Fold this sequence. Notes:
9 helices, alpha/beta, 15% strand
Amino acid sequence: MASSLDACHDYWSNGKDLLFISSTYEPKFMKCWVPILMTYSNGATAEHYRIHFLKLMRGILRSAIQSNRPFTDSMVANVVDHCEAQSKGFKEAFMDLRTLHAADGRTPAQLLQAATSLLKGCKQHFATQVERLSKVSGVVAPDRKSEFKKLTYSLLKADTMDSLNITVAELKRDFPHAKAWVEWWMRPAHAVMLFECVRAVCIQSSGNHCRRPQMRRRQCITGYIEWSAVIYRSTKEFQA
């Protein structure tokens, strides 16, 4: 079952420190999102996220082995926000897992394609950005908010690259002050996680849009709180 990652920027007393929380949805009994791994981090680079994701993936692998279940890629599928460091960290962690801990003979290019197919961007983050930008009168005229929203949400429904590019061109033409915003979402690292037609092209190709990201080499400090069962504790217990 896929998990979702949130990075809390205001949890610790030091504003530069973060709390990474990976959660999964429990559909049978609690019917809510349950945290499965909490990580203290002293930064938010791709390397920090790689450490968190690798810890999570190794835990899932260990659980599968202990319960005599075959380990599959889909077990580590993830939903992240549209932070490039998160997506890079996830891909690096997956490749490390499948190279060092659960090798299955795939090439680096094949592993990278598999990692890309397992990673999705959060559509709620996109919707929040659309709503926020639509309220900026200098970018979207008040009487054109509905038109802007309709066009932007249609990007999510595009089933071919041609239809996606046509909508992008319409947005740039009709809302020129939103051009930089649109182009940001169309960057390969963002588009591949959000738009299905881009994902399909990327997964089928080993070109530059899916190339292996470069690791950022620096010391990363992390601490883990791994939940093997559903445990509720007071927030103060984790407060720095």
